Amino acid sequence: MAASDTRNIYQRIRYGLTGLAVVFLVVLLGAALRRVGQDHPPPPAPVATDPNEPLAEIGAAPGQGQSDNEVAAKPAKKPPVTQ
After folding, report:
1. Is residue 48 part of a domain?
2. Position 43 in a domain
3. Distance CA 30, CA 24 (A)
4. What CA–CA distance (Å, rounded) separates 50 from 52?
């Protein structure tokens, strides 16, 4: 392989990578310009909640309590008998 062949191979690789970089930048620029032109709807207004619910105010879910099935499965306590 002659030195000119090696230079030719490196030149073709350089041209290919440069072309690939140009295509990447053009697509990136097109996506950025397309996103700028879109109108985004405003975020929804927060729902008014009871001020005694601090977790609801920040949008966090409370921990899991007893489910209805667990409550129904437990026997009811008898009230104390007074005489």
Report:
1. no
2. no
3. 10
4. 5
Kind plus residue range of the DSSP H or E element containing 49 = none
Distance CA(31)–CA(23), nearest Å, equals 12
Asked if residue 33 is part of any domain, the answer here is yes
Question: Which single residue is written with the structure tokens 């620029």?
Answer: 29
Residue 20 to residue 32: CA distance in whole angstroms? 18
Q: Which amino acid is at 11?
A: Q
Which three-class secondary structure state does DSSP give residue 26?
Answer: helix
Boundaries of domain holding 24: 1-37
Q: What is the pLDDT of residues 16-65, one digit of tens each?
A: 999 999 999 999 999 988 887 677 777 777 665 556 777 767 777 666 55
Confirm if 15 and 23 have CB atoms less than 8 A apart.
no
The answer to whether residue 16 is domain-embedded is: yes
The reported pTM is: 0.42
